[in-house]
Amino acid sequence: MRNLEILKEEDKEVLDVARISVDQEGKQGKKKLYIESYGCQMNFSDSEIVTSILQENGFATTSQYEEADVILLNTCAIRDNAEQKVRNRLKNFIPIKKKKPETVVGVLGCMAERLKTKFLEEEKIVDIVAGPDSYRDLPNLVDEAEDGQKAINVFLSRDETYADISPVRLNSNGVTAFVSIMRGCDNMCSFCVVPFTRGRERSRDPYSILKECQDLLDNGYKEVTLLGQNVDSYKWTSEDASEKVNFAQLLERVALINPELRVRFSTSHPKDITDEVLYTMGKYENICNYIHLPAQSGNSAVLKRMNRTYDREWYINRIDAIHRILGYDCGISQDMIAGFCSETEEEHQDTLSLMEYVKYDYGYMFAYSERPGTPAAKKYVDDISAEVKQRRLSEIIALQMKHSLERNEMAVGQVHKVLLEGFSKRSEDFLHGRNDQNKMVIIPRGNHKKGEYVQVLITGCTSATLKGEVVAG
Ligand code: SAH
Ligand code: SF4
Ligand code: F3S
């Protein structure tokens, strides 16, 4: 059975593929852009920036790649199969190129940054390769490609945050939006390609973040998710050094915009999440009681090999702090990697026992995939067989499903505040939304509509969703 909430690697990436859902009609004669995103929320957020930049330069958008003048894929390099998916997708565009050779095909994002000119050599169909910090240059790169040249910009910046660019909301439900607060990552977890594909960590000016959130509220949005690879290390200093803002302070400022605007954030790094952040979460009702706190492993020796810079005891200390400050019902989710280099059966058991300790609400679980050039690829041998990785992964997923069900059952009989996001996937007779803990809640449609907050009595659940009835609008 395919469980949509406990996502396996392939599922996650399939679900993560998004296309522009709304055709934004341009004036006649305007060139048309088609953009597709893979990978994490940062990439989706970046595609909104890319669309904004190209719209400013006279492009209209289309949801049909067959009618596009420029086709862009915003790619992910996190695991090998994420890259294979992009290579397969590129094959779909070969007939288009045959029919309309002037069509420009570009690859953006992390895979573009990782492969650089190799991408142009390996995938003949590609005209543009643009890394995550080069999007302001896209209009020029498109011009070059239209002149028949191959165009590439993979320069990584120390200060680009696209702070002044108003993202064009793609696939928007008009209720929830992502707001990027920082870029890059300085952590160098040994398995991870992100520091190489997204460069050094930098934080965005808080005033531009607050303005973007206010604009979203003014346009009817009710929820923002502050995005970064490691939001807890957000730090910004004004030019004259008179003002410093850390993540807890930024969170507070965003929460103060309006109590009707819900605030979420992702991702928290266990080494950086402070009690100050937890107290700020507790202080404001509109900051959601939910933390995505990737563990990667429950064993200290594996965590050391992964260069996560915390051990099992530290991680448990952070979980205890969450329970102490925010209560046992704070939603917590994990990322786990099964079968990292030299992981023994005992070390794997420690991951399961950490899961038993925390009882996560939700999880993203992956088999280790060696990424060329990363510290782990250089230092360690990828010596766990595919079968063993898969078996361990299945055990982790099965345990997570059990815990998700247990945690969801705790909600039955309670009344939860839910922000409605739209029709349920299965039927327009139902609406779906999320509660404070980020759990999906399905209700009969009644007279309700998306964008409303409703109080819902939870009457049933699966491991993936809660079901309920509105008791107050
Ligand atoms: N910045 C986030 C993670 C971003 S990548 C953090 O530090 O928590 C998302 C997830 O992909 C990671 O948490 C990890 O579980 C997984 N991942 C990253 N590199 C991987 C690899 N080489 N193989 C398998 N999974 C990987
Ligand atoms: Fe990768 Fe680690 Fe940075 Fe997360 S914190 S993006 S896992 S290097
Ligand atoms: Fe993938 Fe890059 Fe995000 S590698 S997970 S798109 S930061």
Automatic annotation (TrEMBL):
Binds 2 [4Fe-4S] clusters. One cluster is coordinated with 3 cysteines and an exchangeable S-adenosyl-L-methionine. The keyword Iron applies. Keywords: 4Fe-4S, Cytoplasm, Iron, Iron-sulfur, Metal-binding, S-adenosyl-L-methionine, Transferase, tRNA processing. [4Fe-4S] cluster 2 binds at residues 185, 189, 192. It catalyses: N(6)-dimethylallyladenosine(37) in tRNA + (sulfur carrier)-SH + AH2 + 2 S-adenosyl-L-methionine = 2-methylsulfanyl-N(6)-dimethylallyladenosine(37) in tRNA + (sulfur carrier)-H + 5'-deoxyadenosine + L-methionine + A + S-adenosyl-L-homocysteine + 2 H(+). The keyword Phosphoprotein does not apply. It is an enzyme of class 2 (transferase). Its cofactor is [4Fe-4S] cluster. Catalyzes the methylthiolation of N6-(dimethylallyl)adenosine (i(6)A), leading to the formation of 2-methylthio-N6-(dimethylallyl)adenosine (ms(2)i(6)A) at position 37 in tRNAs that read codons beginning with uridine. Monomer. This is tRNA-2-methylthio-N(6)-dimethylallyladenosine synthase. It comes from Pseudarcicella hirudinis.
